[in-house]
Design brief:
alpha/beta; binds 2'-deoxycytidine-5'-monophosphate; 236 residues
């Protein structure tokens, strides 16, 4: 990704679907299923921040020192396989450790730093530029691909998201604790940071998923995407 880190502009060559939203809303489950339904690649940018946070912590990098992080970013080698979903940094595979609350917390903290965002954003643009991709995160429709073909913003009531996060942790064999408080603190940090804060793009479709099942959300999102992509194709 060294060369990609120089660029800030997106040059997409095929359809890009941006799915953003707060923690616990079900972005990963929905995005993965939507990508499967469309035959598109799936890219989980939160997983990249999580792996980065774990790797930087293991290397004793000071998260509060942006210059220190800048140096660290310059030297690391990030590898994200969209075929397997596995993420390695400097040859260490972090995939099996990114599901914990600790990884989420480290990700949210490190994601406030502009140098880290610049580094991972460039990787994400490079990974998505070929198109036929569903990319999920916090800033995909606003910063990474502001010209995405379809932008979806998934939302849900806090209690619903806390419940979904609890289920997800349990599914990963992790004992949930203080889920609601941790989620609230993380959402606050993600939405109030200066660099690329979590917010809905003006042209995103807002979906409140509070009372919808996963199947219903997937169906709705696929329908919106098909409608928009087909409209875009008419007359070409
Ligand atoms: O989606 P997630 O819970 O795996 O994301 C973990 C953290 O990473 C989240 O709290 C904020 C950060 N993040 C970000 O700042 N920008 C993204 N595009 C994706 C995640």
């Amino acid at each position: 990704f060294q060369s990609a880190r120089r660029g800030n502009d997106s040059v997409k060559k095929g359809p890009v679907i941006a799915i953003d939203g707060p923690g616990g809303v079900g972005k990963s489950s929905v995005s993965k299923r939507v990508a499967e339904a469309l035959g598109f690649k799936y890219i989980n940018t939160g997983a990249m921040y999580r792996a980065f946070g774990l790797a930087a912590k293991a290397s004793y990098v000071d998260f509060k020192d942006d210059l220190n992080l800048q140096d660290y970013c310059r030297d690391i080698d990030i590898n994200y396989s969209t075929d397997t979903g596995r993420i390695t940094i400097d040859g260490v595979d972090y995939t099996d450790n990114i599901g914990s609350d600790r990884a989420g917390e480290l990700a949210s903290k490190v994601a406030t730093q502009p140098s880290v965002r610049a580094c991972l954003s460039a990787c994400q643009r490079m990974m998505g530029e070929e198109g036929h991709v569903v990319m999920e995160g916090r800033d995909i429709g606003t910063v990474i691909f502001p010209d995405a073909d379809v932008k979806i913003y998934l939302d849900a009531a806090h209690e619903v998201r806390a419940e979904r996060r609890k289920d997800e942790l349990e599914k990963n064999g992790i004992e949930p604790s203080r889920v609601s408080d941790i989620l609230e603190a993380r959402d606050k940090r993600d939405a109030s940071r200066q660099a690329a804060p979590l917010k809905q793009a003006d042209d995103a479709v807002h979906i409140d998923t509070s009372s919808l099942t996963l199947d219903e959300v997937v169906k709705k999102v696929v329908q919106i995407i098909n409608e928009r992509l087909n409209v875009g194709n008419t007359g070409r």
